[in-house]
């Protein structure tokens, strides 16, 4: 019994111990799980994110490849796939670009650490070895990901090229596809046409009833909004270009610029207004769910046909001016202008109706033979119109009278029209209906667009010609509004001409590309690459970045100019800062602002500033040889601006140049002489040479007036008179006081010098001039004579000839006995005759 009790107690203790251990382990596990739950989730490194993006891009590439295989004969689907492939290509490139900073950091750090020690060298620290190995492993991973990205980019580029080739082949197959044309085919097409008309009438009537009952208000709202948009555009255009939208009946002889401008702007703006009306109408009708899926394409084709016919009609009226021969741009008779205009309009109507009926057939599910026969008749009609026009007489008569019967086409033009018309007819009858239809469409629409562009370019050229813009309405408006002079108006004409070039090209080129088979997505890709990824060899240029950099540079530069004016006009002017200091501060801020603006502009343009290191090294070599003088002048200019040995407004003397400093730049200093001549002195000469500055510390300076009187004058009286007259001048300083210096006993006069100080050396000329006038008046009043230079000459007739050395030299070799001896005193001869103070001659 006791043994059993001991055993039970032992088992109980062991069980409790095991249970405690279990609970302790469970608590520890729970605590560890709680700790793991509380710990933050690991953050993906840039390498991990790049790897995930690469895997995602591979999946997208596979999907695109499958889509290309499934839609090999669908051009619209291929366009969408090409757009997605282009986006994928940019995303893959972005992956590599994002890894580049980290790769550069690892490369620089490994360069700092250096290579591992070689055999026999002291071992390095363990932490350095671990860091090198870690960085090397990460660099290898980045290289692997970058390699995958490059391979993926190559694959995407290959897919894009494949899509382009497939689309080109589809276009060629569609264009040169041959269809059999026979009587049975025409009969089948006639039956299909009757059935199509019946189905379309039912669909159109049911849609109209539905709209009138349930969509009446959205339809009127869509029409109202589209009309408002078109009217806003048209009214704004009339306000800006009203003078170029209407022909002035009062003008008898319109200028060439006026005719071109009215033809271009009237065609462009009115067509754009109608296009806005049609596009917004379709957009609002479709947005308000007024259009059914089977009716929407037909309405879109109807709007397109209306726009096409209106554009061709406006173009014909603008170019040929059937009823206003003085505004005509081509040398046609009135009858010829009307006939050609009607023919162009007829061909536009045929093209538009063919396009509209083709859209109806596609919406109604009509057989393809109906579209073929319809295009056949359209090509035949256009070909016959061209041949008929070639036999007309549209050219202006030789006498220049537009009402007179015209002349035949030039032989080359008539042959071209007949050949094109016959080619269309032959191609259509032989089964190449698609080719004939395409050529006919391009003849009309592309021809009208190209002709309008050409007129626009001619308008820009005529307006930008020198002294031509001033006669236009817009130039007169600018003159009245901004008070511009002839030179500014001429420069504005150049800008306006360039703007017209841009408008003509930006509108015309995309239209032509769309007409020749390009899609809107294609134009978007072209525009994106043009503005962001223009590649010249290995250099990638972003036009958008360049434009942004130019705008930022201009903005910072204008801000700098404003800061210069604000500091000069508000801060330094109110503080009465010296003019030279103000000029130095303005110049320094100007150069600093231009430097900052250049750095910001270059960085915004996407140009790596580190790439300028090679340019700087090459420039340093050039400086050492040919640019050292320029750099010397530049550094000297900086020294002048900082040290300020002279400033703007100082009176300086440098070599042969003396005048007032007008401008100090970093290359040269402009000095204006007192004769208003500007002398440009290189700064290095001012730094290395002697420069006298009359107004360096202040404008105080001494001025002198030399005075000479005869020996009969009293010196003290002369000195008193000079001091008395000087004391009456307010501009003469009293301290230091004026004084008179008795300089010398001259050969014929007593020489004095009046010396006085002025607070401003700029007043010296005026003060000296006034003082000289007063001195002359006072001396005349006091009887003090101002002598003229004089000499004494004695002639001896009876004395033997005694010649001086100078006379001997002159008469050496001459033994003429008739020569009379002349003796001259040894003192120098200055003048044979003088004049006394009263005006009488004195020998």
UniProtKB/TrEMBL annotation:
Residues in Mechanosensitive ion channel MscS C-terminal domain copies: 704-786
Subcellular location(s) per record: Cell membrane
Keyword terms of this UniProt record: Cell membrane, Membrane, Signal, Transmembrane, Transmembrane helix
Membrane topology note: Multi-pass membrane protein
InterPro entries in the record: LSM_dom_sf, MS_channel_C, MscS-like_channel, MscS_beta-dom_sf, MscS_channel_2nd, MscS_channel_C_sf, MscS_channel_TM-2
A GO term from the CC aspect: plasma membrane
GO molecular function: mechanosensitive monoatomic ion channel activity
Disordered: annotated span: 795-843
Primary localization class, coarse: membrane
Pfam families for the chain: MS_channel_2nd, MS_channel_3rd
Domain of life: Bacteria
Family (UniProt): Belongs to the MscS (TC 1.A.23) family.
Protein's name according to its UniProt entry: MscS Mechanosensitive ion channel
Species the sequence originates in: Rhizobium leguminosarum bv. trifolii (strain WSM2304)
């Amino acid at each position: 019994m006791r043994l059993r009790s001991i055993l039970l107690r032992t088992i109980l203790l062991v069980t409790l111990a095991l249970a405690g251990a279990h609970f302790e382990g469970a608590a520890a596990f729970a605590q560890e799980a709680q700790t793991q739950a509380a710990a933050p989730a690991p953050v993906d490194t840039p390498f991990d994110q790049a790897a995930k993006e690469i895997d995602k891009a591979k999946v997208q590439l596979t999907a695109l490849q499958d889509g290309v295989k499934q839609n090999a004969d669908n051009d619209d689907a291929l366009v969408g796939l090409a757009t997605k492939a282009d986006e994928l290509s940019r995303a893959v490139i972005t992956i590599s670009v994002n890894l580049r900073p980290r790769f550069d950091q690892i490369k620089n750090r490994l360069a700092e650490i250096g290579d591992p020690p070689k055999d026999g060298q002291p071992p390095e620290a363990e932490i350095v070895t671990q860091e090198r190995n870690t960085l090397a492993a990460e660099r290898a991973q980045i290289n692997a990901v970058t390699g995958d990205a490059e391979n993926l980019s190559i694959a995407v580029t290959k897919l894009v090229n494949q899509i382009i080739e497939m689309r080109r082949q589809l276009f060629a197959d569609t264009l040169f596809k041959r269809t059999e044309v026979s009587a049975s085919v025409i009969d089948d097409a006639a039956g299909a046409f009757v059935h199509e008309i019946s189905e379309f009438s039912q669909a159109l009537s049911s849609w109209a009833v539905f709209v009138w009952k349930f969509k009446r208000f959205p339809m009127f709202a869509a029409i109202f909004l589209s009309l408002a948009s078109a009217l806003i555009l048209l009214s704004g255009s009339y306000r800006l270009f009203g003078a170029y939208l209407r022909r002035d009946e009062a003008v008898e002889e319109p200028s060439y610029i006026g005719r071109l401008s009215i033809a271009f702007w009237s065609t462009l703006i009115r067509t754009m207004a109608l296009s806005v009306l049609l596009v917004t109408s379709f957009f609002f009708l479709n947005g308000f769910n007024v259009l059914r899926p089977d009716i929407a394409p037909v309405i879109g084709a109807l709007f397109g046909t209306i726009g096409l016919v209106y554009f061709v009609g406006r173009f014909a009226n603008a170019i040929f001016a059937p009823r206003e021969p003085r505004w005509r741009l081509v040398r046609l008779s009135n009858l010829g202008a009307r006939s050609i205009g009607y023919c162009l309009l007829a061909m536009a109507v045929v093209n538009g109706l063919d396009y509209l009926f083709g859209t109806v057939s596609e919406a109604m599910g009509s057989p393809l033979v109906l579209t073929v026969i319809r295009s056949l008749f359209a090509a035949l009609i256009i070909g016959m119109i061209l041949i008929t026009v070639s036999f007309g007489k549209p050219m202006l008569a030789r006498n220049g009278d537009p009402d007179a019967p015209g002349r035949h086409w030039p032989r080359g033009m008539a042959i071209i029209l007949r050949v094109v018309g016959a080619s269309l007819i032959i191609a259509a009858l032989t089964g190449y209906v698609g080719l004939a239809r395409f050529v006919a469409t391009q003849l009309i629409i592309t021809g009208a667009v190209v002709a309008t562009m050409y007129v626009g370019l001619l308008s820009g050229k005529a307006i930008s010609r020198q002294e031509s813009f001033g006669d236009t309405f817009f130039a007169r408006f600018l003159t009245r509004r901004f008070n511009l002079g002839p030179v500014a108006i001429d420069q504005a004409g150049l800008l306006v001409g360039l703007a017209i070039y841009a408008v003509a090209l930006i509108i015309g080129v995309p239209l032509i590309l769309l007409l020749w088979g390009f899609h809107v997505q294609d134009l978007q890709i072209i525009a994106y690459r043009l503005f962001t990824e223009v590649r010249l060899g290995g250099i990638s240029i972003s036009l958008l970045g360049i434009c942004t950099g130019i705008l930022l540079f201009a903005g910072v530069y204008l801000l700098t100019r404003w800061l210069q004016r604000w500091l000069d006009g508000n801060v330094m002017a109110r503080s009465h800062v010296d003019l030279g200091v103000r000029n130095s501060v303005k110049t320094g801020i100007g150069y600093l602002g231009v430097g900052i603006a250049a750095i910001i502009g270059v960085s915004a343009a996407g140009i790596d500033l580190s790439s300028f290191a090679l340019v700087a090294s090459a420039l340093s070599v050039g400086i050492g040889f040919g640019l050292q003088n320029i750099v010397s002048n530049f550094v000297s200019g900086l020294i002048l601006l900082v040290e300020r040995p002279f400033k703007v407004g100082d009176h300086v003397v440098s070599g042969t140049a003396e005048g007032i400093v007008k401008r100090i730049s970093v290359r040269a200093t402009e000095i204006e002489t007192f004769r208003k001549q500007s002398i440009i002195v290189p700064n290095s000469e001012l730094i290395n040479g002697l420069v006298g500055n009359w107004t360096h510390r202040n404008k105080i300076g001494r001025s002198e007036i030399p005075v000479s009187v005869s020996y009969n004058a009293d010196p003290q009286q002369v000195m008193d008179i000079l001091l008395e007259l000087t004391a009456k001048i307010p501009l003469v300083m009293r301290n230091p006081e004026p004084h008179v210096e008795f300089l010398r006993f001259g050969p014929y006069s007593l020489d004095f010098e009046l010396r006085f100080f002025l607070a401003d050396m700029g007043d010296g000329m005026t003060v000296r001039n006034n003082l000289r006038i007063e001195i002359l008046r006072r001396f005349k009043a006091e009887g003090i004579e101002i002598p003229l230079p004089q000499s004494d000459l004695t002639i001896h007739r009876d004395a033997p000839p005694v010649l001086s050395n100078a006379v001997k030299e002159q008469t050496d070799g001459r033994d003429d006995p008739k020569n009379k001896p002349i003796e001259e005193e040894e003192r120098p001869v200055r003048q044979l005759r003088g004049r006394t103070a009263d005006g009488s001659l004195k020998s």
